Give the backbone structure.
Amino acid sequence: MKLEKVTEQRKRHYDDACGTAHAMDLIGERWAALVVRELLFGPKRFGELRADLPGLSANVLTQRLEGLEESGILQRRRLPPPASAQVYELTSWGYELEPMLLALGRWATRSPLHDPTLPISPTALMLSFKSMYSADRAGDLTATFVIRLGEYSFRLEIAGGAIGVEKAEPDARADAYISAEPAALGAFVYGGAPIDLLAVEGDRALVARLPGLVPLPPKAGS
Amino acid sequence: MKLEKVTEQRKRHYDDACGTAHAMDLIGERWAALVVRELLFGPKRFGELRADLPGLSANVLTQRLEGLEESGILQRRRLPPPASAQVYELTSWGYELEPMLLALGRWATRSPLHDPTLPISPTALMLSFKSMYSADRAGDLTATFVIRLGEYSFRLEIAGGAIGVEKAEPDARADAYISAEPAALGAFVYGGAPIDLLAVEGDRALVARLPGLVPLPPKAGS
DNA sequence: CGGCATCCGGGAAGATACTG
DNA sequence: CAGTATCTTCCCGGATGCCG
């Protein structure tokens, strides 16, 4: 413990009352927004975050978690004794970032420089379904998928024109089940790859409709 | 000119197909989002950007403008010969960032750490009106303001429940005129400062209603 | 293993001065 | 006015090691 630097000039910040500037103070540091993204489906442990964000080193992750906690965007929480582990969880205010991060993601996807062949995390892929979902394309479809991506499983539900995605048990009830690597599922949904490369159970025709439900937005013209 | 480093590994980037990650590649660098913010009401010259973003040094501004141009978010444009000056202007895709930057600003304003007493640029203040505007509060009010903030003048129009803000001539027609420093107008609208500190012409009662039209959102509770 | 501290190299940011 | 050149400072990213 060191008490030096009582002055502690709160890092580098924009000296600006503008809300947008403050937003960049809060989540504009490198990796900060992606840490928030990874927590949007629920709490995670340090090691999970590290595994889901390759390229982010442990010391920087520590710094970001400290900063985001001080900002009130997330909390560290200790799980009940049986599995006494520490997890990081967004606060309700932190969860409110979801629509903005999704909108930014949808906007950035239209960049000519965007490369969809790069690796993608399970969380990011499931969030992309929420941001690309087209209610028009879905019509009055009602369907439930369970999607298993590595260690994580999600339940994707389409009903009443709306889409919902949440963490789920791998064996939760659903009309169709997909097991795949994130990259493979991304290639199928967004890249036109054949369905044969996925492990599908249940209603295969429903899975075949999935790419049509989440069309990529058109690229930005000059 | 130096041609070394043909490899040119496109700066630092997140190696991630996620749209949100790409968005942070595009506008997550320091000052980038604020440069975009300053251009949301129209093109500006290098010196104007520099004046409106105190703390941003010339060399960094040059780098950001280069990066944002390569990304297709803005263009440099040369004005017709009479006033042969170069300006920077958002592309239509760049302008689409407005609702996201406003939403982030509104969200960040609810941070316990947000300090509204810091300096604010004319553009940022006028944008804040768009993001804080409450149609409920406005009811069926119809009103037009001309707001003069230093070198810039804006026209703020409320009609049919909607708000519109745009650059305007200082003597454009309006129901009421306000001339002030950005900080003074901010203190009146958001800080409860008395109207006497503003230079007002025209319908003074209309100006008195302004703070009620743009209520600050409640702070985030834990 | 999870979390955090420390050291180091490279590179971006910030301040200042300079040039067309 | 519109940038460029240079120098310093600090952040980022990787490696290592300590401690619970």
